[in-house]
Automatic annotation (TrEMBL):
It comes from Paractinoplanes deccanensis. SUPFAM superfamilies: Glyceraldehyde-3-phosphate dehydrogenase-like, C-terminal domain, NAD(P)-binding Rossmann-fold domains. InterPro entries: NAD(P)-bd_dom_sf. This is Gfo/Idh/MocA family oxidoreductase.
Length: 344
């Protein structure tokens, strides 16, 4: 059994200890909070009061670097919530102080979400040839950058960013808290950016306020390759001489109609090729829960020396550095270049 303590008590922290309770090989031994309160897990006010195998930080952006440092100073591996630091100066300072320790991972879960994991498997299997452009209109900042870099397979090199913002009326029927019951259109800002990674590889970033929850905006994922294209849950590709094939990525979901195996995700497949298989059958978790539980299990495996690092600090820092460049380019209207950072 691999143990962890979570620092924080908000909704994200709650997801970590709740998911761990359902995993047979990972245990949350408590939450570290400033002010003692009643929680479903044991409560501590300092990391000195317990000795877990690793620490999960689930705190606001501004507090994350200091909490990460506290754990590293005690020799504890860290799974840091995104982003690891709020701005470029603090990203660089955090790397300078902790980068050489190799103790810090980042809880960037988007590439582990079942739909994204299936798409990524299709791209890495070479079904559309060499990927050259990724378009993401789904999530914001570092998460979107992680998806773009992941699908392209690019490292942590320089990036040239151009961006604009527009504002238009949009009804916002849903938030994290649920239905708003407000049908009045209100101003919503859309940020669109192009990312040039060099060697013909590029990304398109497109995000509208509250797009995570607002179901009036489609999510769009496009990966353009040398031999075809992936668009959301469909692939078109050159399969042979004079042979262009078009096929859907199909999710097998149990629990419908006369299927009595309970509601659950089983697989995502392209024809006979299974691209994703749910590693937690029977839990009936949503996609976000599957991704986070996968991240927890991979972190535990890495801590035990049985698996690769799940998402190193260098990658999480680079995602956010590029995301900050998108914001700067949109704010100023100027082209922003991300030079080679110290973690490259």
């Amino acid at each position: 059994m691999t143990s962890f303590a979570v620092v924080g008590s908000g909704w994200r922290a709650e997801m970590f200890w709740r998911l761990a309770a359902a995993l047979p090989d990972v245990e949350c031994v408590g939450a570290v909070v400033r002010t003692p309160r009643e929680l479903p897990v044991p409560v501590f006010t300092s990391l000195d009061e317990l000795r877990p195998d690793f620490v999960v930080t689930a705190v606001p952006w501004a507090a994350n670097p200091s909490v990460i440092m506290e754990a590293v100073e005690r020799g504890l591996p860290v799974l840091a919530e995104t982003p690891p630091a709020p701005d470029e100066a603090k990203l660089r300072a955090l790397w300078q102080l902790t980068g050489d320790t190799g103790l810090v991972q980042v809880a960037e879960q988007y590439l582990l979400v079942p739909a994204h994991a299936a798409r990524l498997a299709a791209v890495r299997d070479g079904l559309i040839g060499e990927p050259a452009q990724v378009q993401v209109s789904s999530t914001h900042m570092y998460h979107a950058v992680s998806l773009i870099r992941g699908y392209l397979g690019v490292g942590r090199g320089p990036v040239t960013v151009r961006a604009t913002r527009t504002t238009a009326p949009l009804v916002d029927p849903l938030t994290r808290a649920g239905w708003t019951d407000d049908a009045e259109p209100r101003a919503a800002t859309t940020t669109i950016a192009t990312l040039d990674f060099g060697d013909g590889r590029s990304g398109l970033y497109d995000f509208t306020d509250n797009q995570w929850h607002n179901q009036l905006r489609f999510r769009r994922i496009v990966v353009r390759g040398s031999h075809g294209e992936l668009q959301n849950d469909e692939i078109v590709r050159l399969a042979g001489p004079r042979t262009i094939l078009r096929a859907p990525l199909v999710r097998r979901q149990t629990g419908y109609d006369l299927d009595l195996d309970d509601f659950d995700t089983d697989t995502i497949a392209l024809g006979e090729r299974v691209l994703f298989r749910n590693p937690f059958p029977g839990r009936r978790w949503n996609d976000e829960e599957i991704a986070m539980a996968t991240m927890l299990r991979r972190m535990a495996s890495w801590v035990r020396g049985e698996g690769p690092p799940p998402y190193p600090l260098a990658d999480g820092a680079h995602d956010h550095l590029v995301a900050l460049a998108i914001e700067e380019a949109a704010d100023t209207g100027e082209t922003v270049t991300v030079d080679v950072p110290p973690w490259s």
